[in-house]
Specification:
Largest sheet: 8 strands, mixed
Helix content: 40-55%
Distance between the termini: 39 Å
Structural class: alpha/beta
Strand content: 5-15%
Order of helices and strands: HHHHEEEHHEHHEHEEHHHEHH
Shape: globular
Number of strands: 8
Radius of gyration: 21 Å
């Protein structure tokens, strides 16, 4: 897999050198074999150094990487079985939301997931992973079914936001999100949410009112996409990198603020480098959080869920101002 992000140029050069040596196979001389081993070690060390110190904008690029595993990849790798549910019983079926019952190591869960697309055709089919109102109503239907049968809910969050089209507003986008937020706040089964890529705006929050929120190391979770924030603050999306830094959208920023409960380490170089390792890490996190939540009495669980969101957003002294672009 190519090193194709802007900050990975030095890694791409090393990878090219390694590939050229590997192609020689058994024809490698002793000195070339030593060069290969040294280059592989250097690639690993440089990758560790770069990914340990990613800026918030670089983290955004990783979270959006075209090869990053999507929800259906995790479903395939984590679940023993999956039965998808379609439609909201009101208008239609939204393919940006994938919902259905699954088994993870014998534990039945109701999965509610954002799903992006790989190629142009699938991106159009999935609406770039941005749900319509009927997607959120499908999620509500699935969650009510989970509550009826006492099945825990797991949501996989990976969306830039909800679909902003006029037809979505006409079909009640804000009402659909608000109703889902209200439902999740009082749902009488455990809920675990995982941010696996890009968690943006109300489109992400709509399936993120959970007892536990875990977040992959190089994912982002934000009130608005950096480009949108830059357009609002400075009337120019070109300042997206500056907005990303100001908003503190990485997992390591959000954990101390109580916005997420656990950071899940990713494979070296990001989840797109090793789907299986990323899926195993997420699977283990879901299992141990669900096990802990199932031990709680329902009323205690609901009270803890309520208090969790009441505590978010403490006020304090503002120590720094949002930086202004030099040419603004």
């Amino acid at each position: 897999m190519a090193y194709d992000l802007e900050f990975e140029k030095s890694l791409a050069d090393l990878d090219k050198k390694i590939t050229a040596l590997q192609r020689k196979g058994e024809r490698l001389k002793d000195d070339e074999l030593l060069q290969l081993q040294e280059a592989e070690q250097e690639l690993r060390q440089q990758t560790e150094a770069i990914y340990h110190n990613l800026s918030r904008w670089e983290t955004t690029q990783v979270a959006r990487h075209k090869d990053r595993p999507y929800s259906e990849d995790y479903i395939r790798l984590m679940c023993d079985d999956f039965f998808e549910l379609h439609g909201d019983r009101t208008f239609g079926d939204d393919h940006a939301i994938v919902a259905g019952m699954a088994q993870i190591n014998g534990q039945t869960v109701m999965l509610i997931c954002h799903q992006k697309g790989r190629d142009s055709k699938e991106r159009q089919f999935r609406n770039l992973g941005m749900p319509h109102p009927e997607g959120y109503r499908k999620a509500s239907r699935a969650m009510l079914q989970a509550e009826k049968f006492g099945i825990p809910v797991v949501s996989l969050i990976d969306a830039a936001g909800a679909s902003p089209a006029l037809v979505d507003e006409e079909r009640g986008q804000s009402e659909a999100i608000a109703s889902l937020l209200h439902l999740m706040s009082r749902l009488r089964v455990p809920i675990v949410a995982a941010i696996i890529g890009e968690g943006g705006s109300g489109g992400a929050l709509a399936i993120g009112v959970a007892d536990r929120i875990v977040m992959l190391e190089h994912s982002i979770y934000t009130v608005a996409a950096p480009e949108a924030a830059a357009s609002i603050l400075w009337h120019d999306a070109a300042f997206a990198s500056l907005a990303a830094e100001a908003m503190r959208i990485r997992a390591r920023d959000l954990l101390p603020m109580g916005l997420v409960d656990e950071i899940l380490p990713e494979p070296l170089g990001g989840a797109h480098r090793n789907y299986s390792e990323a899926a195993n890490t997420l699977k283990d996190a879901l299992q141990h959080n669900l096990t802990e939540l199932k031990r709680l009495p329902v009323e205690e669980m609901l009270e803890l869920r309520y208090q969790k969101f009441r505590k978010i957003g403490p006020f304090g002294t503002v120590k720094s101002r949002i930086p202004m672009p030099s040419n603004s």
